[in-house]
Amino acid sequence: MTRRIVVGVPCHRDEPGIVRTVASLAESAERLADPVRIVVCINGADPGDGAAAAALRDNPGLAIVRLLDEASKPAAWTALRDEPGDVHVFADADITVNKWALPALVDGLDERDVVATAAKQQHEGEGVVAHVAAVPHRLAWGGLLGTLYAAKTEALPVEMPLDVLLDDAWLFAQLGGAGRVAQAPLAIATVQLPTRWRDLWRQRVRAEAGKQQLTSMGLPLAAPPKETTSIYRTLVAYPPREWPFVAALAGIKFFAARRARKGYGEWKLATSTKQ
Q1: Which residues pair with 65 in a beta bridge?
Q2: Which domains does the chain have, with CATH numbers?
Q3: Contacts from 242-247 at CB under 8 Å and sequence distance 24+?
Q4: Strand residues in the chain grouped as ranges (E)
């Protein structure tokens, strides 16, 4: 049976890497047997005048472009969800994917009780900050990593609330009642790690605020890796040379959680290509 596949990319108006992202998605889409449409939803004030729209105009034919005059990733997600299709793939606007990413994600949906599939992450970044940021990614996290994932359209919520901070964790909680979320090991999304302390701090505050928000909504979070359930298990999971970076991240997360508790509802990420 032929499936209509939509690859949706929420994209901030000033995202500089959108062409690279869409080009890698298009290369992977060539390996799909089903018809596929790549749709980029550029959002923000005057989205047609930003760097993302200009870059896509200079590279015509890469993707269908939708413009949303609102700086909101949840709003862009909902607009892309409305695109007609049987399978929706969502990708961040600042990643690259391997050639078999989309076939691996789509084929994984054929497994029993699976309603969504998530790609593995590969990380790039140099320097101390990137090394600290990479610490949690060395463990096997479950749930739905929002960088790159696919879902059966019928299982997706009709819309995403505009105030959601952790869209992937929120979606994982929504999909839990419909079926399983499976990992697709052959699908790999390459992500750039933050290389400045300011960016890492803002990333962690948003993550902690998002977790507090979901808890207040009564929504479940994905179970953390067992290595994070005690200091002893954490230290055993990393070689001694990594312990300073583990300690640095633990300190950042502690103070980020305190900052987030001052009011997650007011927390906004001022600059993000993922908005």
Answers
A1: 40
A2: 5-266 (3.90.550.10)
A3: 242/135, 245/128, 245/131, 245/132, 245/134, 245/135, 246/135
A4: 5-12, 36-43, 64-68, 87-91, 95-97, 114-124, 148-152, 180-192
3-state class (DSSP) for residue 139: coil
Contacts of 122 (CB under 8 A, 6+ apart): 188, 189, 190, 191
* pTM score of the predicted model: 0.90
Contacts 24+ apart (CB under 8 A), 154-158: 154/86, 155/115, 155/116, 155/179, 156/81, 156/88, 157/81, 158/78, 158/81
Backbone angles phi, psi at 187, to 5 degrees: -95, 120
Residue tagged 């939708």 (tokens): 66
* Backbone φ/ψ region at 125: left (φ over 0), alpha (ψ -120 to 50), beta: left
Residue closest to 69 by CA, chosen among 26, 146, 12: 12
How would you write the pLDDT of the chain (275 residues) with one tens digit per residue? 789 999 999 999 999 899 999 999 999 999 999 999 999 999 999 999 999 999 999 998 989 999 999 889 999 999 999 999 999 999 999 999 999 999 999 999 999 999 999 999 999 999 999 999 999 988 877 777 789 999 999 999 999 999 999 999 999 999 988 899 999 999 999 999 999 999 999 999 999 999 999 999 999 888 888 888 888 898 899 999 999 999 999 999 999 999 998 865 444 443 343 44
